[in-house]
Amino acid sequence: MALLSFRCRNSADLERLSEEQKGLRVTSQLNEKELNSPASGWTYRHLIAYHLLTSPAKPYLTIFKTDHDNECPVCKPHKPCRQRLDGVLTDDPCPRNLFQCTESELMRLPNGAFWVALARATRPEPLGDERSHPQRERKPVVRNDQMDSSTVIPGSSSPTMPSSSEFEVSLNIDGIDEDEHEARRRKPEEVTVHLVICFLQLFLNLWLVQDPHGTTEVRPRIECRRSEIRTGAGSVLAEDDGGICTMVRKAGGWAMKHPFLALLEAKRAFKQIYFDEHTGEGKPIASNETLAQCLGEAVVTWRANPDYSQQDIFMIAATNSFLRFMHFRRNALCHILALLRWHDAHSTLELSEGQEDTDDSMEEDIE
Question: According to the UniProt record, where is the region Disordered (predicted)?
Fold first, then answer.
């Protein structure tokens, strides 16, 4: 089965993709529905119109590579670093009988709430005759609107290489067959959100030692945040599924100081998993729409919250028990926003030959 992926590394790639979309090069060539679409409705055409360039997958985000090599308390527990972990992290902490245990049994284990959330997310739903309601038959297909997430998502960690940027708790997708993947697809999105929040809570507020007497604390953000920006033709909305935030201690309790240390975007499941017939390994395939939605949420969140406009946008894309970290660079977002402002100012003008030229500076620094 062939993998069709969104690969846009340079100006030549962008020009080729533009020609495939009948010369789509700028946002003003999007139709009114596309221009006013919420981030959740962004598509492959938005990736081209916003000049998105992607870089190959890496085991660690480039911006974190040096820091990880020098100061990661997980990989280098005996090396002095600014962070300290409380407790022992083993290579395989997952209960062997996770699928057979009752939730009462799991809750009695250390970190029981997390194991319950993991079991709910990874236990396959009954298939075939055990279904309580008739289901239409679904067949995996390969379509032009899909991409290989191991090579495409900008600045992402690799799903096939061990790294601190991903967390699978030894439930690697290599061991998932097509029937089990089909069963997991029916898990509601809320199950994934709950699992990720439980994991973040466990790691940030139990394993990671934070100053109990300090004035700030990093926590998972369970509240969804909606952002909106005005455009020349209307408005664009974006809503995340939670994230990581900084809380500050006040006289009467705690208040949120920075809600966007990282955004969370959860999906029920990848549309497909590609199974290599030679190696037997599975590789998740994410759709171009997922990438476009993440780009839209990054742009809208960054533009709608000027207090954080000097910072990059980090996003955790989660599906079932699989996590991927994405980094949208600030200077790339600056170019995109300048592109939006320019077209807002020229929304009533006809496109000229000069406007159709590609500006190389707008295509740089997107990871």
Answer: 125-167
